[in-house]
Amino acid sequence: MWPNLFTVGPLTLKSLGLMGVLAMMTMAFVFWRRGREEHYMEDQLFDAFLVSLLIGLVVSRIGFIVFNFGVFGFNLNSWLDLSGVPGMYLGLGVVSAGLWMARASGKNKWDEFEILDLWVTALAIGLGVLHLGLFLAGVGVGQATYLPWGMTFPGQLEAHHPNQLYTAGFFFALTPYLAWTEYHYRTFGWYRKGKKAAKTGFLLSIFMILSGVFLLGRSFFQVSTVMIWHQPADTWLYLGLIVWGSFVLLKRAGRLDLKKTPTPDQFTLNQ
Asked: How far is CA 104 from the centre of its chain?
């Protein structure tokens, strides 16, 4: 692993810091480009993205502090010391950033689901780049394993699952799938349910479902220290993604609509 790319005097370029910045820049570019293609106001859209990114970073740090309060205590310096006491709860950050994007979309009278569709296409590649940085830094390793692809990370004596590589590979594979789906889901008859036009929100729901399923499976190889109701905290988050993604998919497809539009024959009989 290469946690430090190079050192010049007192300055050290860390691989995780570099890949984190690259991930944010990649997300910003993809989101800006897709928003421009859909003829949104670029400045308003980009401002909303930057605010959501900031909120995600702050909430992810706060979440990490809360779940590791025994380490941080009420020491404000340690809360802010990302270099000396690193750590973020990525899942909470992503969820909070997505909620802000939905709120900003409603405030600006945009199509919330279309904006979130664009947002998850950018998020997928950003998460891939970020987890590649986690791998280079040797952060977020999985459980110990004797499987041939297990890897020995800095500070570890045994081989461990390279969970960061699993996750990076998943999101790098998900990115082109979402790009392909974006141009084809409107032709899916089961999703349109007889309507002339398919509703937006398909990419968002697919992203949540597939990510939830993958991350839930990955959790079996993950070292968890925070437990909620005798289960790792991440497990509940991933299950929530699957359930909520399924709900959004069925709702946007019209599969949960209880009211049926009467046919002409039924309307005549009612008269």
From this structure: 18
